[in-house]
Amino acid sequence: MSGSSPLKCLVVDDSALYRKIVRDVLAGMPDVEVVGIASDGQQALTQIEALRPDVVTLDLEMPRLDGIGVLRELQARGLDVAAIMVSAFTARGAKATTQALQLGAFDFILKPATNSLEESIAQLRQDLGPKLRACLLRRAGKQAKSVARVAPTAALPASAVSAARIVQPRPPQRPARFLARHPEIVAIGVSTGGPQALTQLLPLLPANFPAPVLLVQHMPPMFTKSLADDLDRRCSLRVMEASHGQPVRVGEILIAPGGKHMRVARLATGLVVQLTDDPPERNCRPAVDYLFRSVAQHYGGATLAAVLTGMGDDGTLGAKAIKQAGGLVLAQDEASCVVYGMPKSVVENQLADIVAPLNRLHEHLLKPFAGRIAI
What are the Response regulatory domain coordinates in residue numbering (predicted)? Predict the structure, then answer.
């Protein structure tokens, strides 16, 4: 990791042992500074207001005020800090984590389920590393936007000007184009920031939305089931975690289960989804690329795909396959992303037909069914 100043972190957990483990793991990372610890939610809020950390590792279950309560207070007080939730790998933990992500938590990690302290430390280091790199990108993006708002006549450090240039959005320069026929499938890929984005986007699709929706959200097993159940309560369309051999049907949104790839296959009875244990792609299983390739193969130019907020570049190769088959690709814009990684890669590889903010994406999912889309 690199940055102009260390990433300031606050560790919050009611277990003294776990606080020490997380603090030591963070302290051993480059460009990270542990500025404080707290044993419950009330202490955490006091420390956040006093220390103004960039990141807080936040336990879900604590006395006095739990992690969910802390997130609600952060919203109420207008405190901007990236909260990385620390969750148990249980159905209860998955449900609470889904709620936390929809309340604005940046991401989450699982408490290591090992019998070895050394293995737990190694697992935490492995899991926290990518999240903290994403937090550095988040901070750099915020700083660059702040720089961009400064009057041009103001004296700015060269490094700040360079950062501002790097993160400027690059919308595709393409003439208007149209789908050869109405879409028959919608495929969506999303990672960090996904639960909150999906909670905003999917309930805007009407009950008579005329195409099935297949979705990959980077999450572990059990957590995708909790997400699907929560979205199902909010949406007009039926939302569920996909099962192997399930038909692809209009009126349903199928989410790939954590730990399984999802693809489309054609059987004598019609198109179905298949779940596989094929090797991870881009360190992801499920992978967006894996789904997108199969959708391009079976639906070709009748494919409408969207790549939303997330770390890394999963979805880029799949978007290329969809474009080559004649389909359309949407990308979430930088300003509305929690992490502008996956959509940024799609945009910079000139694969996005439309780049739109999250609150306008539903319009572009609906337009192709009424007629043409002009870019």
Answer: 8-126
106 domain residue, yes or no: yes
Residue range 153-170, pLDDT digits in tens: 444 344 333 333 333 444
Same domain, 102 and 205: no
Catalytic (active-site) positions: 191, 218, 314
pLDDT digits (tens, 9 = 90+) for 55-91: 999 999 888 899 999 999 999 999 999 999 988 877 8
Q: Rounded CA gap, 135 and 260, in Å?
A: 27
d(CA 131, CA 139): 12
Closest CA to 216 of 277, 252, 245, 259: 259
Q: Are 97 and 226 in contact (CB under 8 A)?
A: yes
Boundaries of domain holding 13: 7-146
The CA-based angle 232-235-236, given to 5 degrees, is: 115
Q: What pTM was computed for the model?
A: 0.85
Provide the domain count of the chain: 2
Total Cβ atoms within 10 A of residue 74: 22
Rounded CA-CA distance 357/332 in Å is 6
CB atoms closer than 10 angstroms to residue 18:
18
Which residue has tokens 């972190």?
Answer: 9
